[in-house]
Write a structure and sequence with these properties.
alpha+beta, eight-stranded mixed sheet, five-stranded mixed beta barrel, 18 strands
Length: 441
Protein backbone atom coordinates (compact mmCIF):
# COMPACT_ATOMS: atom_id res chain seq x y z
CA UNK A 1 0.00 0.00 0.00
CA UNK A 2 1.31 3.49 -0.94
CA UNK A 3 0.65 6.52 1.27
CA UNK A 4 1.43 10.21 0.78
CA UNK A 5 2.60 12.51 3.58
CA UNK A 6 2.48 15.91 1.89
CA UNK A 7 6.26 16.25 1.78
CA UNK A 8 7.70 16.93 -1.68
CA UNK A 9 11.35 16.06 -2.16
CA UNK A 10 12.71 16.48 -5.68
CA UNK A 11 16.43 16.58 -4.98
CA UNK A 12 16.56 19.84 -6.95
CA UNK A 13 17.67 23.04 -5.25
CA UNK A 14 16.35 26.60 -5.46
CA UNK A 15 18.41 29.78 -5.64
CA UNK A 16 17.66 30.66 -2.03
CA UNK A 17 19.26 27.38 -0.98
CA UNK A 18 22.29 27.82 -3.25
CA UNK A 19 22.89 31.35 -1.92
CA UNK A 20 23.43 30.10 1.64
CA UNK A 21 26.90 28.78 0.77
CA UNK A 22 26.05 25.38 2.21
CA UNK A 23 26.48 23.73 -1.21
CA UNK A 24 29.65 25.47 -2.42
CA UNK A 25 31.98 23.00 -4.13
CA UNK A 26 29.34 20.28 -4.13
CA UNK A 27 27.46 18.59 -6.97
CA UNK A 28 23.97 20.06 -7.17
CA UNK A 29 20.91 19.62 -9.39
CA UNK A 30 18.61 22.45 -10.43
CA UNK A 31 15.81 22.95 -12.93
CA UNK A 32 14.80 25.99 -14.97
CA UNK A 33 14.25 27.50 -18.40
CA UNK A 34 17.17 28.45 -20.62
CA UNK A 35 16.91 32.24 -20.55
CA UNK A 36 19.93 32.76 -22.80
CA UNK A 37 22.53 30.62 -24.57
CA UNK A 38 25.90 32.21 -25.42
CA UNK A 39 28.64 30.23 -27.22
CA UNK A 40 31.99 31.72 -26.15
CA UNK A 41 34.33 29.76 -28.45
CA UNK A 42 36.76 26.93 -27.76
CA UNK A 43 33.87 24.64 -26.82
CA UNK A 44 32.69 26.88 -23.97
CA UNK A 45 29.00 27.93 -23.69
CA UNK A 46 27.29 30.03 -21.04
CA UNK A 47 23.67 29.25 -20.23
CA UNK A 48 21.57 31.55 -18.09
CA UNK A 49 18.95 29.52 -16.31
CA UNK A 50 15.75 31.36 -15.41
CA UNK A 51 14.24 30.19 -12.15
CA UNK A 52 11.24 31.36 -10.20
CA UNK A 53 13.32 33.60 -7.94
CA UNK A 54 16.05 34.83 -10.29
CA UNK A 55 18.69 33.59 -12.73
CA UNK A 56 21.66 31.25 -12.42
CA UNK A 57 24.74 31.10 -14.64
CA UNK A 58 25.73 27.67 -15.94
CA UNK A 59 29.06 27.03 -17.69
CA UNK A 60 29.15 24.16 -20.18
CA UNK A 61 32.40 22.72 -21.51
CA UNK A 62 32.99 20.89 -24.79
CA UNK A 63 31.97 17.58 -23.23
CA UNK A 64 28.39 18.70 -22.51
CA UNK A 65 25.96 17.92 -25.35
CA UNK A 66 23.94 21.06 -26.09
CA UNK A 67 22.68 20.04 -29.52
CA UNK A 68 19.07 19.81 -28.33
CA UNK A 69 19.24 22.78 -25.95
CA UNK A 70 17.72 26.03 -27.19
CA UNK A 71 16.56 29.18 -25.47
CA UNK A 72 13.32 28.56 -23.53
CA UNK A 73 14.03 24.83 -23.24
CA UNK A 74 12.99 23.45 -19.87
CA UNK A 75 16.01 21.62 -18.45
CA UNK A 76 17.50 19.90 -15.42
CA UNK A 77 21.17 20.73 -14.85
CA UNK A 78 23.65 18.85 -12.68
CA UNK A 79 27.11 20.17 -11.89
CA UNK A 80 29.47 21.68 -9.34
CA UNK A 81 28.41 24.89 -7.59
CA UNK A 82 31.23 27.45 -7.48
CA UNK A 83 31.55 31.02 -6.27
CA UNK A 84 32.06 33.48 -9.15
CA UNK A 85 31.74 37.19 -8.38
CA UNK A 86 31.25 38.09 -12.04
CA UNK A 87 28.18 35.84 -12.34
CA UNK A 88 24.63 36.88 -11.37
CA UNK A 89 24.24 36.26 -7.66
CA UNK A 90 28.00 35.62 -7.32
CA UNK A 91 27.82 31.93 -8.20
CA UNK A 92 27.66 29.52 -11.14
CA UNK A 93 27.28 25.85 -11.91
CA UNK A 94 29.98 24.08 -13.89
CA UNK A 95 27.78 21.70 -15.79
CA UNK A 96 28.41 17.96 -15.94
CA UNK A 97 25.05 16.87 -17.31
CA UNK A 98 21.98 18.52 -18.79
CA UNK A 99 18.60 16.91 -19.35
CA UNK A 100 16.06 18.51 -21.70
CA UNK A 101 12.49 18.20 -20.42
CA UNK A 102 10.85 20.09 -23.28
CA UNK A 103 11.81 22.27 -26.23
CA UNK A 104 9.90 25.19 -27.81
CA UNK A 105 8.14 24.53 -31.11
CA UNK A 106 9.04 28.01 -32.40
CA UNK A 107 11.57 30.71 -31.56
CA UNK A 108 10.42 33.51 -29.26
CA UNK A 109 8.60 36.38 -31.05
CA UNK A 110 10.58 38.89 -28.94
CA UNK A 111 14.00 38.64 -27.25
CA UNK A 112 12.83 38.32 -23.64
CA UNK A 113 16.41 37.86 -22.44
CA UNK A 114 17.23 41.48 -23.24
CA UNK A 115 17.40 43.92 -20.33
CA UNK A 116 14.80 46.22 -21.88
CA UNK A 117 12.16 45.45 -24.48
CA UNK A 118 11.38 48.29 -26.89
CA UNK A 119 7.78 47.34 -27.60
CA UNK A 120 4.74 49.53 -27.90
CA UNK A 121 1.95 48.88 -25.41
CA UNK A 122 -0.41 47.05 -27.78
CA UNK A 123 2.33 44.70 -28.99
CA UNK A 124 3.49 43.98 -25.47
CA UNK A 125 0.01 43.19 -24.19
CA UNK A 126 -0.77 40.97 -27.17
CA UNK A 127 2.40 38.97 -26.40
CA UNK A 128 1.93 39.14 -22.63
CA UNK A 129 2.24 35.38 -21.92
CA UNK A 130 5.84 35.38 -23.15
CA UNK A 131 6.84 39.02 -22.55
CA UNK A 132 6.35 38.46 -18.81
CA UNK A 133 9.35 36.10 -18.89
CA UNK A 134 11.57 39.17 -19.23
CA UNK A 135 13.29 39.71 -15.88
CA UNK A 136 12.31 43.36 -15.48
CA UNK A 137 8.71 42.74 -16.52
CA UNK A 138 8.59 39.87 -14.08
CA UNK A 139 9.94 41.99 -11.26
CA UNK A 140 6.99 44.40 -11.53
CA UNK A 141 4.70 41.59 -10.45
CA UNK A 142 7.03 40.43 -7.71
CA UNK A 143 6.75 43.95 -6.28
CA UNK A 144 2.99 43.70 -6.66
CA UNK A 145 3.08 40.37 -4.87
CA UNK A 146 4.97 42.04 -2.03
CA UNK A 147 2.35 44.78 -1.70
CA UNK A 148 -0.48 42.24 -1.56
CA UNK A 149 1.43 39.97 0.79
CA UNK A 150 2.16 42.89 3.10
CA UNK A 151 -1.54 43.81 3.13
CA UNK A 152 -2.58 40.34 4.26
CA UNK A 153 0.23 39.99 6.79
CA UNK A 154 -0.29 43.42 8.31
CA UNK A 155 -4.05 43.22 8.73
CA UNK A 156 -4.02 39.63 9.93
CA UNK A 157 -1.48 40.61 12.59
CA UNK A 158 -3.70 43.57 13.57
CA UNK A 159 -6.65 41.27 14.27
CA UNK A 160 -8.63 41.80 11.07
CA UNK A 161 -10.63 38.91 9.61
CA UNK A 162 -10.20 38.16 5.90
CA UNK A 163 -13.52 37.95 4.06
CA UNK A 164 -14.63 36.99 0.55
CA UNK A 165 -17.59 38.93 -0.78
CA UNK A 166 -19.75 38.24 -3.87
CA UNK A 167 -18.91 39.86 -7.19
CA UNK A 168 -22.37 39.32 -8.70
CA UNK A 169 -24.56 41.82 -6.92
CA UNK A 170 -28.09 43.23 -6.80
CA UNK A 171 -27.07 46.91 -6.84
CA UNK A 172 -23.97 49.00 -7.40
CA UNK A 173 -22.21 50.36 -4.34
CA UNK A 174 -21.13 53.51 -6.13
CA UNK A 175 -24.23 54.05 -8.28
CA UNK A 176 -23.97 55.90 -11.57
CA UNK A 177 -23.61 54.49 -15.05
CA UNK A 178 -20.17 52.89 -14.69
CA UNK A 179 -21.50 49.47 -13.79
CA UNK A 180 -21.56 46.26 -15.82
CA UNK A 181 -25.06 44.81 -16.17
CA UNK A 182 -25.68 41.12 -16.70
CA UNK A 183 -28.55 38.68 -16.86
CA UNK A 184 -28.81 36.44 -13.82
CA UNK A 185 -31.42 33.74 -14.36
CA UNK A 186 -33.86 36.26 -15.89
CA UNK A 187 -33.12 38.84 -13.22
CA UNK A 188 -31.14 42.06 -13.38
CA UNK A 189 -27.73 41.84 -11.75
CA UNK A 190 -24.40 43.67 -11.84
CA UNK A 191 -20.67 43.04 -11.47
CA UNK A 192 -19.53 44.52 -8.18
CA UNK A 193 -17.94 47.98 -8.29
CA UNK A 194 -16.76 47.56 -4.71
CA UNK A 195 -17.19 45.24 -1.71
CA UNK A 196 -18.51 48.28 0.17
CA UNK A 197 -21.92 47.00 1.32
CA UNK A 198 -20.58 43.62 2.38
CA UNK A 199 -17.54 44.81 4.26
CA UNK A 200 -19.76 47.24 6.20
CA UNK A 201 -22.11 44.35 7.02
CA UNK A 202 -19.18 42.32 8.28
CA UNK A 203 -18.04 45.10 10.62
CA UNK A 204 -21.19 44.26 12.57
CA UNK A 205 -19.89 40.68 12.81
CA UNK A 206 -16.10 40.87 13.26
CA UNK A 207 -15.47 44.62 13.88
CA UNK A 208 -12.41 44.64 11.59
CA UNK A 209 -12.27 42.99 8.15
CA UNK A 210 -10.22 43.05 4.95
CA UNK A 211 -10.38 41.67 1.43
CA UNK A 212 -8.15 41.53 -1.66
CA UNK A 213 -10.31 40.93 -4.73
CA UNK A 214 -11.27 42.18 -8.21
CA UNK A 215 -13.73 45.01 -8.79
CA UNK A 216 -15.34 46.10 -12.05
CA UNK A 217 -15.94 49.58 -13.49
CA UNK A 218 -17.70 50.12 -16.84
CA UNK A 219 -15.88 53.36 -17.52
CA UNK A 220 -15.94 54.17 -21.22
CA UNK A 221 -12.63 55.89 -21.50
CA UNK A 222 -9.08 54.83 -22.20
CA UNK A 223 -6.53 56.62 -20.05
CA UNK A 224 -3.15 55.61 -18.59
CA UNK A 225 -4.75 55.35 -15.12
CA UNK A 226 -7.99 53.39 -15.64
CA UNK A 227 -8.81 49.69 -15.96
CA UNK A 228 -12.23 48.08 -16.26
CA UNK A 229 -11.19 45.29 -13.92
CA UNK A 230 -8.66 45.89 -11.19
CA UNK A 231 -7.66 44.52 -7.80
CA UNK A 232 -8.85 46.41 -4.76
CA UNK A 233 -7.29 45.97 -1.32
CA UNK A 234 -10.06 46.91 1.11
CA UNK A 235 -10.40 47.12 4.84
CA UNK A 236 -13.21 48.29 7.11
CA UNK A 237 -12.98 48.91 10.86
CA UNK A 238 -15.53 49.55 13.58
CA UNK A 239 -15.54 51.65 16.76
CA UNK A 240 -13.47 54.40 15.17
CA UNK A 241 -13.11 57.74 16.93
CA UNK A 242 -12.85 59.62 13.65
CA UNK A 243 -11.82 58.99 10.07
CA UNK A 244 -8.27 59.89 11.07
CA UNK A 245 -8.08 56.44 12.67
CA UNK A 246 -8.42 54.96 9.17
CA UNK A 247 -5.65 57.20 7.88
CA UNK A 248 -3.34 56.07 10.68
CA UNK A 249 -4.04 52.40 9.91
CA UNK A 250 -3.29 52.83 6.21
CA UNK A 251 -0.04 54.60 7.07
CA UNK A 252 0.85 51.63 9.29
CA UNK A 253 0.26 49.29 6.34
CA UNK A 254 2.43 51.41 4.04
CA UNK A 255 5.29 51.40 6.54
CA UNK A 256 5.02 47.62 6.89
CA UNK A 257 4.88 47.17 3.10
CA UNK A 258 7.97 49.28 2.41
CA UNK A 259 9.94 47.45 5.10
CA UNK A 260 8.89 44.10 3.61
CA UNK A 261 9.90 45.13 0.10
CA UNK A 262 13.24 46.40 1.35
CA UNK A 263 13.91 43.14 3.17
CA UNK A 264 12.53 40.43 0.86
CA UNK A 265 12.42 42.00 -2.61
CA UNK A 266 15.80 43.71 -2.82
CA UNK A 267 16.74 42.07 -6.15
CA UNK A 268 13.52 43.23 -7.78
CA UNK A 269 13.88 46.75 -6.38
CA UNK A 270 17.41 46.92 -7.79
CA UNK A 271 16.40 45.45 -11.15
CA UNK A 272 13.73 48.16 -11.56
CA UNK A 273 15.83 50.91 -9.93
CA UNK A 274 13.00 51.65 -7.49
CA UNK A 275 13.33 54.37 -4.89
CA UNK A 276 11.09 53.43 -2.00
CA UNK A 277 9.04 56.37 -0.70
CA UNK A 278 9.41 57.85 2.76
CA UNK A 279 6.35 56.80 4.77
CA UNK A 280 7.50 57.67 8.27
CA UNK A 281 5.30 60.77 8.21
CA UNK A 282 2.65 61.58 5.61
CA UNK A 283 1.17 65.10 5.37
CA UNK A 284 -2.59 65.69 5.57
CA UNK A 285 -4.33 68.55 3.78
CA UNK A 286 -7.99 69.40 3.18
CA UNK A 287 -9.40 69.18 -0.33
CA UNK A 288 -10.03 72.90 -0.47
CA UNK A 289 -6.59 73.88 0.81
CA UNK A 290 -4.82 71.41 -1.50
CA UNK A 291 -6.56 72.86 -4.57
CA UNK A 292 -5.74 76.41 -3.54
CA UNK A 293 -2.07 75.67 -2.77
CA UNK A 294 -1.49 73.94 -6.11
CA UNK A 295 -3.42 76.57 -8.07
CA UNK A 296 -1.44 79.41 -6.51
CA UNK A 297 2.00 77.82 -6.95
CA UNK A 298 1.56 76.50 -10.48
CA UNK A 299 -0.77 79.22 -11.80
CA UNK A 300 -3.51 76.83 -12.84
CA UNK A 301 -7.03 78.12 -12.16
CA UNK A 302 -9.52 75.91 -10.32
CA UNK A 303 -12.10 74.71 -12.84
CA UNK A 304 -13.98 72.04 -10.89
CA UNK A 305 -14.72 72.99 -7.26
CA UNK A 306 -16.11 69.52 -6.45
CA UNK A 307 -13.39 67.12 -7.60
CA UNK A 308 -9.70 66.85 -8.44
CA UNK A 309 -8.74 66.67 -12.09
CA UNK A 310 -5.72 64.45 -12.94
CA UNK A 311 -3.55 67.50 -13.59
CA UNK A 312 -4.53 68.91 -10.20
CA UNK A 313 -3.61 65.63 -8.50
CA UNK A 314 -0.23 65.79 -10.24
CA UNK A 315 0.30 69.39 -9.11
CA UNK A 316 -0.71 68.63 -5.52
CA UNK A 317 1.72 65.70 -5.47
CA UNK A 318 4.42 67.93 -6.93
CA UNK A 319 3.71 70.64 -4.33
CA UNK A 320 4.10 68.31 -1.36
CA UNK A 321 7.22 66.72 -2.85
CA UNK A 322 8.86 70.12 -3.35
CA UNK A 323 7.74 71.65 -0.06
CA UNK A 324 7.98 68.65 2.28
CA UNK A 325 9.85 65.91 0.41
CA UNK A 326 6.69 63.80 0.64
CA UNK A 327 5.73 61.17 -1.93
CA UNK A 328 2.31 60.64 -0.32
CA UNK A 329 -0.32 63.13 0.80
CA UNK A 330 -3.75 62.55 2.34
CA UNK A 331 -6.36 64.92 0.90
CA UNK A 332 -9.37 65.10 3.20
CA UNK A 333 -12.92 66.51 3.35
CA UNK A 334 -14.09 65.93 -0.21
CA UNK A 335 -17.33 67.68 -1.21
CA UNK A 336 -20.56 65.84 -0.41
CA UNK A 337 -21.68 66.36 -4.00
CA UNK A 338 -18.95 64.03 -5.31
CA UNK A 339 -18.91 61.36 -2.60
CA UNK A 340 -21.13 58.23 -2.40
CA UNK A 341 -24.33 58.15 -0.37
CA UNK A 342 -22.72 56.20 2.47
CA UNK A 343 -20.06 58.87 3.15
CA UNK A 344 -20.65 60.70 6.43
CA UNK A 345 -21.06 64.45 6.13
CA UNK A 346 -18.86 66.71 8.22
CA UNK A 347 -21.09 67.89 11.09
CA UNK A 348 -19.21 71.20 11.13
CA UNK A 349 -19.84 71.83 7.43
CA UNK A 350 -22.22 69.39 5.66
CA UNK A 351 -20.99 70.57 2.26
CA UNK A 352 -18.00 68.31 2.89
CA UNK A 353 -17.58 64.70 3.97
CA UNK A 354 -15.39 62.91 6.49
CA UNK A 355 -13.56 61.22 3.64
CA UNK A 356 -10.18 61.30 1.97
CA UNK A 357 -8.03 60.22 -0.94
CA UNK A 358 -4.38 59.23 -0.72
CA UNK A 359 -2.27 60.63 -3.54
CA UNK A 360 1.00 58.89 -4.37
CA UNK A 361 3.43 60.83 -6.54
CA UNK A 362 0.55 62.81 -7.97
CA UNK A 363 -2.08 60.09 -8.47
CA UNK A 364 -4.98 58.90 -6.34
CA UNK A 365 -4.36 55.34 -5.14
CA UNK A 366 -6.83 55.18 -2.22
CA UNK A 367 -10.33 56.40 -1.46
CA UNK A 368 -11.75 56.06 2.03
CA UNK A 369 -13.55 57.66 4.92
CA UNK A 370 -16.10 57.36 7.68
CA UNK A 371 -19.46 55.78 6.82
CA UNK A 372 -22.94 56.71 7.99
CA UNK A 373 -23.95 54.27 10.73
CA UNK A 374 -27.31 55.76 11.78
CA UNK A 375 -30.40 54.41 9.99
CA UNK A 376 -32.37 57.66 9.77
CA UNK A 377 -29.33 59.63 8.59
CA UNK A 378 -28.55 57.06 5.91
CA UNK A 379 -32.10 57.03 4.53
CA UNK A 380 -32.19 60.83 4.44
CA UNK A 381 -28.87 60.93 2.57
CA UNK A 382 -30.19 58.44 0.01
CA UNK A 383 -33.35 60.48 -0.55
CA UNK A 384 -31.33 63.69 -0.91
CA UNK A 385 -29.43 62.04 -3.76
CA UNK A 386 -32.59 60.89 -5.51
CA UNK A 387 -32.12 57.25 -4.54
CA UNK A 388 -34.80 54.73 -3.52
CA UNK A 389 -34.05 53.18 -0.11
CA UNK A 390 -36.33 50.22 -0.83
CA UNK A 391 -33.77 49.05 -3.40
CA UNK A 392 -31.18 48.71 -0.62
CA UNK A 393 -33.18 46.76 1.95
CA UNK A 394 -30.50 44.21 2.80
CA UNK A 395 -27.82 46.90 3.11
CA UNK A 396 -30.00 49.08 5.35
CA UNK A 397 -30.63 46.12 7.64
CA UNK A 398 -27.33 46.77 9.39
CA UNK A 399 -28.23 50.41 10.05
CA UNK A 400 -31.70 49.48 11.26
CA UNK A 401 -30.37 46.95 13.76
CA UNK A 402 -27.41 48.89 15.10
CA UNK A 403 -23.89 49.64 13.85
CA UNK A 404 -20.86 51.19 15.57
CA UNK A 405 -19.09 54.23 14.10
CA UNK A 406 -17.01 52.73 11.31
CA UNK A 407 -15.10 53.39 8.13
CA UNK A 408 -12.54 52.03 5.74
CA UNK A 409 -10.94 52.35 2.36
CA UNK A 410 -9.94 50.68 -0.88
CA UNK A 411 -6.45 50.74 -2.40
CA UNK A 412 -6.00 50.20 -6.14
CA UNK A 413 -3.25 47.59 -6.24
CA UNK A 414 -2.34 48.21 -9.89
CA UNK A 415 -2.09 51.98 -9.43
CA UNK A 416 0.03 51.58 -6.32
CA UNK A 417 2.31 49.20 -8.24
CA UNK A 418 2.43 51.53 -11.24
CA UNK A 419 3.55 54.56 -9.24
CA UNK A 420 6.00 52.60 -7.10
CA UNK A 421 7.66 51.05 -10.17
CA UNK A 422 7.72 54.32 -12.12
CA UNK A 423 5.48 53.06 -14.95
CA UNK A 424 3.60 55.44 -17.21
CA UNK A 425 0.52 53.29 -17.81
CA UNK A 426 -1.45 51.19 -15.33
CA UNK A 427 -1.73 48.39 -17.91
CA UNK A 428 1.95 47.62 -17.37
CA UNK A 429 1.05 46.89 -13.74
CA UNK A 430 -1.74 44.44 -14.61
CA UNK A 431 -0.92 40.90 -15.73
CA UNK A 432 -3.72 40.67 -18.30
CA UNK A 433 -5.50 44.04 -18.42
CA UNK A 434 -9.12 44.54 -19.37
CA UNK A 435 -10.06 47.81 -21.03
CA UNK A 436 -12.43 49.09 -23.73
CA UNK A 437 -10.87 46.96 -26.45
CA UNK A 438 -9.10 44.08 -24.70
CA UNK A 439 -10.61 40.75 -23.67
CA UNK A 440 -7.55 38.61 -24.32
CA UNK A 441 -5.07 37.19 -23.62
Amino acid sequence: MKFVTGTLETGQLELSELKTGAYDGQTVTVHGAVHSKRPMGEGLTFLTLRKRDGVLQCVCGAGVDLSSVSEESAVIVTGTLCREQRAPGGMEIRVEEIQVLSSPAEPMPVPVNKWKLDLNLDTELALRPVVLRNLRKRSVFKIQEGLGRAFREYFSAEGYTEIHTPKIVHAGAEGGSNIFRLEYFNRKAFLGQSPQFYKQMMVGVYEKVYEVAPVFRAEKHSTPRHLNEYTSMDFEMGYIRSFYDIIEVETGYLRYAMDLLRRDYADDLERLDIRLPNVEQIPICTFREAKELAAAKYHRPIRDPYDLEPEEEANIGRYFQEEYGADFVFVTHYPTKKRPFYAMDDPEDPRYTLSFDLLFRGMEVTTGGQRIHDYKTQVEKMLSKGMHPEEFTSYLTIHKHGMPPHGGLGIGLERLTMKLCGLDNVRYACLFPRDLSRLEP
